[in-house]
Amino acid sequence: MAGADDFLALQADFEEVLASKESKDSRRDCILQHFSKLDKNKSFRIPDFDKDLDWLNVSAPLQFSHDGSLQGKVVVLDFFTYCCVNCLHVLPDLHRLEQRHSLQDGLVIIGVHSAKFLNEKVTANILSAVLRYDITHPVVNDSETSLWQKLSIMCWPTFVIVAPHGQVLYYIVGEGHSDVLFEFVELALEHYRSQGQISPHTLLPLSLEKDQQVEAPLSFPGKVHVGPGPDQLVVSDTGHHRLLVLDRVTGVVQTIIGGKEKGFQDGSLQDARFNSPQGVTSHGNLLFVADTENHALRQVDLSSGQVTTLAGTGAQGEDKQGGNPGPQQPLSSPWDVATGVSPGGEEVDVVFIAIAGTHQIWAYFLKDVTWWKSKPFKAGSCARIAGSGNEENRNNSYPDKASFAQPSGLAVSPREELDSLFIADSESSTVRALSLKDGSVKGLVGGDRDPKNLFAYGDEDGSGIEARLQHSLGVALLSPSGPLLVADSYNHKIKSVDIKTKQCTTVLGTGAPGHVAGGDSSSVQLNEPGGLCVDTQGQLVYIADTNNHSIRVLDWNTKTVSQLPVIFDKENTKPQEIQLDSASLVKGIYLPEVTLQPGANLQFSLDLKFAPGLYGNLEAPNSWKLSSGDEAGQKFLSSLPTDVIKGRLHPDAKSHETLASLKIADDVTTSSLILVLTCQVFVCHPDNSCTQQRQQFVQKLNISPSGIADHVSVAVLEVS
Question: Which CATH superfamily is domain 4-212 in?
Answer without folding.
Answer: Glutaredoxin (3.40.30.10)
